[in-house]
UniProtKB/TrEMBL annotation:
The organism's taxonomic lineage, starting at the top: Bacteria, Pseudomonadati, Pseudomonadota, Alphaproteobacteria, Sphingomonadales
The organism of origin for this protein: Sphingomonas montanisoli
Superkingdom to which the source organism belongs: Bacteria
An MF annotation (GO) of this entry: transaminase activity
Aminotransferase class V domain ranges (all copies): 102-384
InterPro entries for this protein: Aminotrans_V_dom, PyrdxlP-dep_Trfase, PyrdxlP-dep_Trfase_major, PyrdxlP-dep_Trfase_small, TAT_signal
Gene3D superfamilies referenced in this protein's UniProt entry, alphabetically: Aspartate Aminotransferase, domain 1 (3.90.1150.10), Type I PLP-dependent aspartate aminotransferase-like (Major domain) (3.40.640.10)
Keyword terms, alphabetized: Aminotransferase, Pyridoxal phosphate, Signal, Transferase
Full protein name: Aminotransferase class V-fold PLP-dependent enzyme
Family matches, as Pfam families: Aminotran_5 (PF00266)
SUPFAM superfamilies in alphabetical order: PLP-dependent transferases
Keyword Cell membrane annotated: no
Signal peptide: 1-29
Keyword rRNA-binding: no
Length: 433
């Protein structure tokens, strides 16, 4: 039995309940979109699948992704379905597909299909930050005095969790700075150096794509280097999954987490945690969550009510990813990034915070203007771009070499969006003299 809202019932309720319910009824009653099939969406048509504010050049897709229309519509339908069914859905009392257990299974299977692992190795979380914090805080291999290592380009939420290991578990927390300008060779040398200097290290945090600068690190080589010294790695793949064309096996890591609401374009409040099956016992269950067996990865997620509609929408978001195709998607995002970077290469007062090596960048690229030597000046650049040119970027701090302006085109972005940025930078490059 499936609890699909009936159009007549919804319209009758709308007459009593007002315009908001009527709008919901229209969304549910709309014809179902055609099925998404592999590589059925051309990148040339990608922007047409999104509803965006046409008055702003939104180059801040690094926060989270706008859902494509087909995903947003599915999310609206699921929201109404869950709201109508209430505990009937969540308590798994109905036969067939209309229950939470099946929805959770389908979400895990979709993500596993996307990243190339077993569904039993995937746990759907409330965000990438939640997943990473759970992996770090519940890693069982730390005792007082052991070293744990992170770098300046790691994400604030993960840095906080690594510091927590120091204040709550007695770990010795080691921070180092990523080289800049970076190359594959000096990145690997920096990790090799910090591991050699800390032979008591047990845990290393590695960010695949820095949320601060956009630098792409050689994760597999770092994981291999750490493992040879008996050091485990936790990989933050929030800006890698569904943007870079790879599978989890290509990283070689045992513990990975990411945000499904970023480049997979699922609804807000969705993340994922991967634990290699053979390493499950090395991550403790969350807050004595004995509602599930200890050999179930979902016991690593705190018990509590989640956004069921967002969970149910994950499979169609993954379908959309495959409809574009991982290879075409990465190539398209690189082209948008290269378009604006190449347009300002001859402006000496604009400096990129990532190297030109295509292996070390993708969609995200941060820049500095000459004289942008403080957080206040970085904020001023962000404000100038928005107020004068209607271009949204974001300033990022915490980088050893100084603050940057982060630019992140989205799947919805057009050539006109990145061209507007290049034009603005050529006009404003000397704003600090």
């Amino acid at each position: 039995m499936s609890f699909k809202p009936d159009r007549r019932q919804l319209l009758k309720g709308a007459a009593l309940g007002g315009p908001a319910l009527l709008a919901s009824a229209s969304a549910v009653a709309a014809p179902q979109p055609p099925a998404l099939t592999a590589r059925s969406i051309r990148v040339a048509d990608l922007a047409s699948h999104f509803d965006v504010d046409p008055t702003i050049h939104n180059l801040e897709a690094g926060y989270w992704s706008i859902m494509p229309r087909v995903v947003a519509e599915a999310y609206a339908r699921h929201t109404i379905e869950v709201n109508r069914s209430n505990s009937i859905f969540a308590r798994n009392v109905l036969p067939g597909e209309a229950c939470l257990a099946n929805g959770s299974r389908d979400a895990q299977m979709a993500i596993a299909r996307q990243v190339g692992c077993s569904p039993e190795e995937i746990c759907v979380t409330r965000s990438g930050s939640d997943a990473l914090q759970l992996l770090i805080a519940n890693y069982r291999g730390i005792k007082a005095g052991d070293a744990v290592i992170y770098c300046d380009l790691d994400y604030d939420a993960t840095i906080g969790a690594m510091e927590w290991l120091g204040t709550h578990k007695g770990a010795r927390v080691v921070k180092f700075a990523m080289p800049e300008p970076a190359t594959t060779a000096n990145i690997l040398a920096a990790y090799d150096d910090v591991l050699k200097r800390n032979p008591d290290a047990k845990l290393l945090l590695v960010t695949q794509v820095s949320n601060r600068t956009g630098l792409v690190t050689p994760v597999k080589e770092i994981v291999t280097m750490a493992r040879a010294r008996g050091v485990d790695t936790i990989v933050d793949a929030a800006h890698g999954i569904a943007l870079l064309d790879f599978q989890l096996a290509d990283l070689g890591a045992d513990f990975v987490a990411w945000s499904v609401h970023k480049w997979t374009s699922a609804p807000l409040g969705t993340g994922a945690m991967y634990i290699r099956r053979s390493r499950l016992a090395d991550i403790d269950i969350a807050y004595e969550n004995h509602h599930l067996p200890a050999d179930n990865i979902n016991a690593r997620l705190p018990a509590g009510t989640i956004n069921f509609a967002a969970l149910l929408t994950i499979p169609i978001a993954v379908d959309f990813h495959f409809a574009v195709g991982a290879t075409a998607k990465e190539r398209h995002m690189r082209a948008l990034r290269d378009r604006w970077v190449d347009a300002v290469r001859d402006v000496p007062s604009v400096t990129m915070a990532v190297p030109d090596d295509p292996a070390r960048y993708c969609a995200i690229t941060s820049f500095r203007l000459k004289g942008m030597d403080s957080d206040d000046r970085a904020k001023a650049v962000q404000q100038r771009l928005f107020d004068k040119y209607r271009i949204l970027t974001v300033w990022r701090t915490g980088i050893a070499k100084g603050p940057v302006i982060r630019v992140t085109p989205g799947l919805y972005s057009t050539a006109a969006d990145v061209d507007a940025l290049a034009t603005a930078l050529r006009a404003e490059h000397a704003m600090f003299g």
